[in-house]
Amino acid sequence: MNARNIIFYKLINLKNWMKKEIQIKKEFKKKQFQLVRGMKDILPEEQKYWLHIEDLVRRLADKYSFQRIGMPIVENTELFKRSVGTATDIVEKEMYSFFDKGNENISLRPEFTAGIARAYIEHGMLNLPQPVKLYALGPCFRYDKPQAGRYRQFNQINFEIIGEADAICDAQVILVAYQLYQQINLQVVIQINSIGCPDCRPEYENVLKDYLKKYRSKLSEVSGKRLSKNPLRILDSKEKDDQEIVKDAPQQVDYLCEGCREHFIQVLEYLDELEIPYALNSKVVRGLDYYTRTTFEIWPVEGEDGRMVELGGGGRYDGLAELIGGRPTPAVGFASGVERLVSLIKERKAPVKEPESLDIFLAQLGIEARKRAITLFEELYEADIKVTEGLARRGLKAQLELANKLGVKYTLILGQKELIDGTIMIRDMEGGIQEVVDAKKVILEVKKRLEKARVNVNELNKVSAIGPT
Ligand code: HAM
Predict the structure, then answer these.
(1) Answer CATH for 360-450 from 3.50.50.60, 3.40.50.1950, 3.40.50.300, 3.40.50.800
(2) Predicted model pTM
C-alpha cells in the first residue's frame, strides 16, 4: 500500500470514529435517566399517607414524652460493625460503605439505633433524668435484593427508651408501636420472644446447636454456615426446609436465667393489662446482634393474600452502649418501616387524613390584572382563606378548568375591565352564577359566601343524619 492509500484509509477511519463519537454524544443527550434500582420516588399524590403517618408519630411521641432527635445519615462504619454485628446480613452484605475524601470509612445508616446510642453517650445524656426517651424519622439504606416491601432506601420510624431496665419500658415501647398501627386502622399482633442475656444464652445456643447438628445435611447452605457462628438466626430462616427443622427445636424461653424469666413474665403481664394482642413466638430472634431479653415483631393480621411481612420490630439492647464505648446502659426500642405501612394502608383502604380542601381559585386576565392578583393572593391568604391561583396560566378557560379540577367553591376573576371599574367577579363553581362585587370588599364577600356554604352543608348533614321521615 502506498503512502497515498495509507493516508486515505486513515482518513476514512478517522471519519468513522468521529461519526461514532457524535452518535454516542447524541444518544447520551437523549438518555432518559431512571430511578436507581431499589429506590422509590414518593410522588405528591402519595404524600397524604406520609403526612398522616408523620402526624400520628408526632402525636404519639408527645403523648408518651419522647423527644425528637435528628441523626446524621452517615456514621463511622465501625459503629455498625460493633453494634449490629459483623456476622449479620446487614453488615456482611447490605451496607453502603465507602471511604470519604479524608480516607475515613463511613456508611450510610442501615438503621437508627446504633447512631442514637452513640449520640446518647457522646452528648452525656446519662446525666439527664433517666430514662431518656427519643424518637427519630428518616431514611435508612440497605443494599438488599429489591422486592415488594423491600427497598435499598427506605424510611424508618424509631422509638427508643434508654437508661432503664424495667419491663415497663418494654411494654411502653410495644404500646406505642401498637397504638401507631391501631390509629391507622391496621390490626396487628405482636410476635414476642425473649432471647435471654449473655449469662443464659450460651447454654441455649449449645442446646440448639446440638439439635441442629442432627439435621446438618438438610439445612440450607446459609443456615449450614450459621450453625457455628450464629445458630439463633437459623430459627428465623425463610427457607422451607429450615423451617421444617426448627419447628421442633428447643426454645430459648425454657433456658432463661431467673432474671430474664422474671423480666419476660413482667413484660407479658403488662401487655395483658394493656390488652395488647400478642403471640409467643420462639422464632423471633431478629437480624441484629445487639438484642438481649425481649425481642418482638409487629405482624399484620393476615391479609387476604396470606402475606406475612413484618411491619416493624424491636427489642431490648442492654449491652449496646458498652459495646460502643459507653457505660452499661439498658435500653429498649422499636422501628417500623414507613413504606410497608403506606402500602398496607392503601391495600386495606384504611382512612387517612385528606389534605385540606381549597375554597377559592384566583383567576386573572392580562398583565395588569396579574400584577394586582399577585398581591390580592397574599391578602386572601393572610385573611385565612384557602386560596390557590392560576397566575402562570393565560386564558380564562384553562384557569376555570383547573379551578373545576381542584374542586374549589368559588373563582375570583380579575380582568382588565374589573381593574378599571375597581370590581372583581365571583363565580359560584357549582351553579356557574357570576356576581360583580366591589374589589375593596372582596375578602368580606368571599367570607360571607363561604360561611353560608358551610351552614348549608351542616344543615344538609343534619337532615341526612335524621334520615327520611
Ligand atoms: P429492623 O427489623 O432491621 O430493625 O427494621 C425495622 C423495620 O424497618 C422493619 O420491620 C421494616 O418495616 C423496615 N425495613 C427494614 N429493612 C427494610 C427494607 N429493605 N425496605 C423497607 N423496609 C425495611 C431495626 O432496624 C432496629 N434498629 C429496630 C430497633 C429499634 N430495635 C431497637 N430499637
Answers:
(1) 3.40.50.800
(2) 0.88
